[in-house]
Design the sequence.
């Protein structure tokens, strides 16, 4: 089938999915969980085909590990589906209710976005997580996973589709794409697809953004900072810096640049170096840092770099404002932290730093949908439109305005015959 | 100054503006109102220069009328500023508060988007309305008005800038662009500009969307429908159709296509034709319509056309589902109405029609920020991301996550030493 036709049937399915109630979508989720359990052997066999081919192609060990979809991982995604079922139905929630006039009531009600195109890395568990998030939120989804997981994703798509159709959900709400040509064609389907979510490297996300008119939700970079003010608790500061840099070095919420107030640098840096040496973190620093501890020189390029590795760049700054300007100049608007005992300093930092996450006295690594309590995470957005920061089910919602009248005409309000009351109400939309 | 530099200083001003409190921004609004009043003569003189040049260039009468900025219109925008001052400060509102653990509290807090680029039609009143909405919501703004209003916009920009700077607001938060080259350069400044709002024709909005990586908020089309179900009140139906088509024919929320259930067509159409003839509305219809009343034939192209004129296309449909499919196929997702006495029919229509506004028994023309009670309107969005439908101040907001901790590390939660509590709270962010 041509991609244009696939986009159209995805849209048709999305319209029907938007009209299903939460119980029916939960029935679908349950059917998926049961089908994954029942078909576990076939899924593992398909995954072993992918693993064998990838080993033959000399795929690296970390990627092979991500590609693995065994009984343990299958059980994890099944448990994830049961957790998702417990979340409140995100659709049909009244966000605003206003009486415009007697018998003319306006309601702003949540609804699905429509059709979402997701392009993601090789992990087969992501295939299940993304598709079940879309089902819970009533969105059709076109998924393109990594080439390495071809067989695994193919069988997962069939199992998920068939399980949900068997309980009465619309056909074709989930479709599996298998080629790069399909992705290229999908990026042009702005008449059918409402949102593209690319997951992968920065350059990949930027490529998608510049090659489609469809809105894109993704993060372009994660250059996270910690600024240590001169009144910070030293022991706490070292613990937080070590956690932020080393707890999981390849994540987008990992610390990349440390800014240290010049009044505390002499006390902090030697002890910090000892702690980071123990974790094999390579340090780079500006001239002032080099005068205190032995580090490689940091260049302008370092301030703009997301290392995703055991490397940390350090700059000594004279004051809070210089730290804020550094972050707003070189940062990526992801997550930035101030360590200080002064609430006024924290407040200034959190107001002026233009980032999705502004934290006080804790690790950058808390910037995450699960840790934030969103139950499920679509991704982390560094855009300031629609969704910012860790994105839960909310990021997959739009809304519509329902206006319930009794024959009212605008001409009567224009002439002054009728007047708007504009009374805010606390009622849910009755239909 | 080069556009890149202007983008950078706009961003710097936006950072400072985000940190101002609501009282200070209201002081700025008041200063603008007073300065407009004090400089009324100079504004009118500048406008007369624009009017004179435009008359010499044979600008059409409707455009000349829009260009006029006289004492009455100046007073209107001043009153609009006082109304805007009365609205609650949209910034710093806590939208979500969650205790992640004892002493680790997460707050989702509204903040400005940052820098907004607005490209708009010739009306000078729009210059004042847009810039004051941006100030109220703490956003920097780059405005490019119509070439015809060059002198008027130039003096308005200076008055607004100087009045606000005099009360302590940051310099350069508002900048006036005067050339097409500036607009072209602005569309490339995705590192400094967060949102583009184009106001104008469909083709213009689409041009902007395809020529910038910056998110665009605008509506591409307003092809609005009314579906008359077979149980509709006939007199009410005719009144609503006439209001929707003729109350203001050039607006995007005006009715363009009427869908009539076949069971009511024989009764409705002759009486409707009489009512629309009285308003000089030209009718087009499908074959079934032509069999009942004398109308020009409607083609496939008519279903896709936003006339913005005294023209209405009519199609007779066998049932509700055909009407819904027609709307979802040919509509633009703006505003669509069902006329029926049956709540179940209204519910199905309002759930399945994928539009920003889905109305029951009232005019399409209610789709408007002022009529919805939003106090001020940025525009109407047919996108499903960020803002949909009439957009008030809310559409100019983003949010950030503030996390207030006491030294917490992610490693302790990963190891199981600490557990998340994830308790929803009802508290405002204390800083």
Sequence:
């Amino acid at each position: 089938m041509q991609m244009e036709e696939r986009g159209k049937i995805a849209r048709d399915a999305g319209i029907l999915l938007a009209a299903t109630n939460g119980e029916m979508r939960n029935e679908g989720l349950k059917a998926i969980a049961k089908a994954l359990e029942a078909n576990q052997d076939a899924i593992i066999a398909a995954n072993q085909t992918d693993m064998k081919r990838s080993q033959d192609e000399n795929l690296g060990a970390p990627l092979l590990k991500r590609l693995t979809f065994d009984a343990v991982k299958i059980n994890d995604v099944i448990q994830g589906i049961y957790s998702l079922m417990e979340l409140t139905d995100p659709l049909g929630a009244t966000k605003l209710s206003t009486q415009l006039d007697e018998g003319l009531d306006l309601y702003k009600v949540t609804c699905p976005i429509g059709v979402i195109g997701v392009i993601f890395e090789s992990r087969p568990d992501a295939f299940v997580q993304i598709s079940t998030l879309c089902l819970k939120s009533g969105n059709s989804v076109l998924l393109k996973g990594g080439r390495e997981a071809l067989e695994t994703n193919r069988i997962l798509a069939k199992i998920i589709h068939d399980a949900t159709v068997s309980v009465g959900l619309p056909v074709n709400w989930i479709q599996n794409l298998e080629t790069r040509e399909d992705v290229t064609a999908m990026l042009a389907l702005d008449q059918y697809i409402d949102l593209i979510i690319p997951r992968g490297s920065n350059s990949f996300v930027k490529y998608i953004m510049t090659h489609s008119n469809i809105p894109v939700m993704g993060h372009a970079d994660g250059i996270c900072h910690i600024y240590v003010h001169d009144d910070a608790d030293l022991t706490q500061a070292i613990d937080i810096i070590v956690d932020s840099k080393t707890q999981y070095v390849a994540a987008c919420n990992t610390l990349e640049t440390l800014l240290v107030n010049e009044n505390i640098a002499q006390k902090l840096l030697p002890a910090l170096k000892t702690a980071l040496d123990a974790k094999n973190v390579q340090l780079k620093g500006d001239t002032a840092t080099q005068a205190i501890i032995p580090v490689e020189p940091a260049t302008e390029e370092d301030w703009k770099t997301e290392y995703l590795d055991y490397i940390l760049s350090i700059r000594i700054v004279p004051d809070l404002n210089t730290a804020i300007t550094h972050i707003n100049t070189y940062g990526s608007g992801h997550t930035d932290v101030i360590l200080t005992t002064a609430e006024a300093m924290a407040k200034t930092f959190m107001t002026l730093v233009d980032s999705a996450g502004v934290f006080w006295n804790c690790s950058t690594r808390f910037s995450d949908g699960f840790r934030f309590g969103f139950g499920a995470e679509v991704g982390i957005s560094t855009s300031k439109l629609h969704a910012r920061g860790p994105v839960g089910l909310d990021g997959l919602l739009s809304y519509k305005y329902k206006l319930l009248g009794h024959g009212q005409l605008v001409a009567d309000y224009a002439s002054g015959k009728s007047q708007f009351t504009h009374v805010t109400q606390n009622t849910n939309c009755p239909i």
About this structure: The two ends of chain B are 38 Å apart (CA to CA). Chain B has a mean pLDDT of 95. Chain B has two domains: 3-210, 224-366. Residues 22-38 of chain B form the longest helix (17 residues).
